[in-house]
Amino acid sequence: MSTSILVHAHTDARRSQVDATDVVLTGDRPTGALHLGHYAGSLRSRLALQGQCAQTLLIADLQALTDSSGRAAHVAQHVTEVALDYLAVGIDPTQTTIAVQSRLSALAELSVLYLNLVTVARLERNPTVKAEVELRGFERDIPAGFLCYPVSQAADITGFRATIVPVGDDQLPMIEQTNEIVRRVNRMAGARVLPECRALLSSTPRLPGIDGRKASKSVGNAIPLSATPDAIRELVHAMYTDPGHVRASDRGRVEGNVVFAYLDAFDPDRAAVNELKERYRAGGLGDTLLKRRLEGVLDALISPIRARRAALARDRAYVMNVLREGSDRANATTEAVLRDVRAAFSLEVR
Ligand code: TRP
Fold this sequence. Notes:
Blueprint: H1 12-15, E1 23-28, H2 36-49, E2 54-59, H3 61-68, H4 72-89, E3 97-100, H5 105-114, H6 120-125, H7 127-136, H8 144-147, H9 149-159, E4 164-167, H10 172-189, E5 198-201, H11 229-237, H12 258-266, H13 270-282, H14 287-313, H15 316-344
Tryptophan (TRP) is lined by residues 25-29, 58, 60, 63, 153, 156-157, 165, 167, 171.
């Protein structure tokens, strides 16, 4: 499966940041279909990393349950949906391991061990957890599993001895907390049992939803990776531009303009986009023309993804097999790490 057509921007800078001995681990909660925000923020960098070093993508179904336990069936169903999204954008399971978190029992045991190295106060201070607790209105009724998910994420990362974690900036506190746990384990063991990891941030700023707010799987303001041409047209048509730009002749604002955010992220012709920005700022460029260009760019990006996704969706047995083989391979890795961490805790060697 060729991926080169899909990786058309922002990849060269990343190449130099990783070497062949690095181990890349990242994951997604299977709570909905992936969208263009995921493509710009993480899928594209995973495609660029593919083949350069070991890489595992973890479908984090257990983590999804920490705030969606009432939607367990929904989460289970989306494990395959996320796998389909990965394969459709060009993740190649012979080069990138795709594994399901709940099938890796070593990760659960690592989490239990690590819980002894972390205080509740430290978890409550984690800015990502704090922000999500506020967003969801949990207050003191926060599920204990949710409060502790940074620990489970540390298990995910260290379970693969990952050195590189490509994530959005909202996940930086997770990396910090993981490295604290790594240092504690290594101190206990008196040896470097686990490597510290570093985040690899996307070079594209967070892609907004079509309304200019945070793009979300559930709010309906994101463009799904499998959007039909009609849906693309409608979503682009509804995009927030500049409310002060009423007539084409008016001067327009580029900053905060969602259409330009998407053109910046996906239009391969940077020079043309820069020229459009100048014309828009000066006045004389209408939203319709701009949106038509974006529609073309998104159609070209999404069409092959949609076609591959549809073909793969007809071959469930193949997708199941990818998940089974990937999880088996990942299991061997995480079990070996667990043996070493158990030893650091002076637990019997199994
Ligand atoms: N917390 C990540 C998210 O919300 C998903 C995730 C789970 C993850 N395990 C991970 C990311 C390990 C990086 C590494 O999207």
